[in-house]
Automatic annotation (TrEMBL), chains A, B:
Pfam families: LacI, Peripla_BP_1. InterPro entries: Cro/C1-type_HTH, HTH_LacI, Lambda_DNA-bd_dom_sf, Peripla_BP/Lac1_sug-bd_dom, Peripla_BP_I. SUPFAM superfamilies: lambda repressor-like DNA-binding domains, Periplasmic binding protein-like I. This is LacI family DNA-binding transcriptional regulator. The keyword Zinc-finger does not apply. It comes from Cohnella boryungensis. Residues 4-47 form the HTH cro/C1-type domain. Keywords: DNA-binding, Repressor, Transcription, Transcription regulation. One of its GO terms (molecular function) is DNA binding.
Length: 324, 324
DNA sequence: TTGTAAGCGTTATCAT
DNA sequence: ATGATAACGCTTACAA
């Protein structure tokens, strides 16, 4: 049998209440008692049952994290930081990969509520606004403005888009393309596109916009899009890709075509993923560590009953490297 | 207040036992009753409390996953698959990033036990053998043979090492290097090195072995090691890197030095990560999906009281691509 | 300073 | 077929 608080109580010869007090360091306790209890715990190798605690306290110290795909470097990195700060604050993390599957996302949300998690960080969203509003749990989204009541943490997408586009203009590109994953999926990343358009319109420059309608993260499938782009527009000399992974695909394709980078083609990515192969890529770096930290702290604020600002927009940084 | 089984019972006019029965579909229940209960649940928007269930059933339906770093593509990908199969079997996943920090790993193990998880998948190991043996919980390790009682899932590291090395020999390399992260950390990956040595010894070929003593995943710090290697041995014409990330670093450095790949230098990586930039890399692919699947199923076996084989070694595959 | 007892929301064991 | 009631392991008023 597993050792419980009751066994400790019997061994020491006090009530369970007292043991619980020692455990939580509440109330007045003689040092002698404390010591005896500690010893008994050691001896019996006692471990508190967090499930029982959660039930009793109505608090689980668990956060749910719902993202599309943990194997995507952007989410992998941000998750790393979220875990770091959650752990630091005494919270565990339940990992939920939605794969942008509506049913799975919904099931996970229900599962998280049923599991009495103390808060949810959403980096995925495929359901209707009302369904998120109905969650009634501390909630924060990553890079997604779902409604004007659900707090979100993002980086400055518009500025990122502007920085990237301006760089290409400054480098005297004559015909530039904006490439992105599905725009619908991510409202805020759409601002990169808006910024691109604002920079490009009215300028003496040709431009092309392309987006996948993949509702997924099948990076492999970026390839045909990129190939097609260059077939239709072989004279493109600048590309702003809305993710580093996409940018890498472009670089790969242009190598195949024998286009020299940056001489004949300049490429700017987005995210700032720290992965071999992306290290020479000029890109817009999102402050992933800060984003993770703030996502956690927005949740903690809500749990603590504090006011939480609707928007938390963090600055991005242009990393000018080898591909421009 | 939150709706409980009791509220449903009152509304329907039966006992909580009956509601619980409906919930778990146990025993004999009239269809009429079932329907009425279902309706009441819908109406009151009832959600079972998993914490209470776990306490009562002594089963949480949660697995703990301890890995060094979720932002490393290898672990990101394998985690994706683990999550997939866990979910499919009704288990949630608690994500624990150890950062190869002994204290954190130990704390997490305790936390997982306290949280009554039903099993642990360990992809990290920094503690002493006995400490793992003392876990007394369904356990499976990834790519780590800790003792001969703890089941592990891995791919065939020796064969992977042999395949990679043989390829370089077949391609007529004259001087090849084996590069790896810290060998101590990962007993099984060490077999890649053994295989390398077995292939290379007694052949008419020069070879060099280098390993970081980084006890971490600071990929950035691979750079100096790689640079140094080429300074000391500018005549190397083949490299077997024990991870794709390391291989990418080598490719990067050789570009800088103006060495042509594969003409002047051939590079073989390891892992088969699916990341832009690694797509042209010749590498040894680990069957990550199968590994994730089997890690989960080994845990399920243990939970089900079945015999679990000590070792599960899956085949690797040589992907011959652009860098050889 | 310590103890009694109720309560957290479910499940499980007997009854009936 | 359905119900009482104890039990899961812990916390927390309220007492003493």
């Amino acid at each position: 049998m597993v050792v419980t608080i009751k066994d400790i109580a019997e061994k020491v010869g006090v009530s369970v209440t007292t043991i619980s007090r020692v455990l939580n360091n509440r109330g007045y306790l003689s040092d002698n008692l404390k010591k005896k209890v500690q010893e008994a715990m050691e001896e019996l190798n006692y471990q508190p049952n967090e499930v029982a605690r959660s039930l009793s306290r109505k608090k689980s110290n668990v956060f749910g994290l719902i993202i599309p795909d943990i194997s995507h470097p952007f989410f992998g990195q941000i998750t790393k930081h979220i875990e770091y700060y959650a752990y630091k604050n005494g919270y565990k993390l339940m990992l939920c990969n939605s794969l942008l599957n509506k049913k799975k996302e919904k099931e996970y949300i229900e599962l998280l509520r049923a599991s009495q998690v103390d808060g949810i960080i959403m980096g995925s969203h495929t359901m209707k606004v009302e369904e998120y509003m109905a969650i009634k749990l501390p909630l924060v989204t990553l890079d997604r403005r779902i409604s004007d009541t659900i707090p979100y943490v993002s980086s400055d997408n518009y500025r990122g888009g502007a920085l990237a586009t301006k760089l290409l203009l400054r480098k005297r590109c004559k015909k530039i393309a904006y490439l992105s994953g599905s725009l619908q999926l991510n409202l805020l990343a759409k601002q990169r596109h808006d910024a691109f358009m604002d920079q490009v319109r009215g300028q003496q420059i040709e431009y092309v916009v392309r987006q996948t309608d993949l509702n997924g993260f099948k990076y492999r499938e970026y390839e045909p899009m990129v190939r097609e782009l260059f077939q239709e527009h072989p004279d493109i000399d600048g590309v702003f890709a809305s993710s580093d992974l996409l940018a890498l695909q472009i670089i790969r394709e242009s190598r195949r075509l024998g286009k020299l980078i940056p001489e004949e083609l300049k490429v700017v990515g987005y995210d700032g993923i720290q992965i071999g192969g992306a290290e020479d890529l000029t890109t817009i770096e999102q402050p992933m560590q800060e984003m993770g930290k703030l996502a956690v702290s927005r949740l903690l604020q809500q749990i603590g009953g504090e006011e939480t600002p609707l928007e938390t927009v963090l600055p991005v940084k242009l990393l000018e490297r080898g591909t421009t």
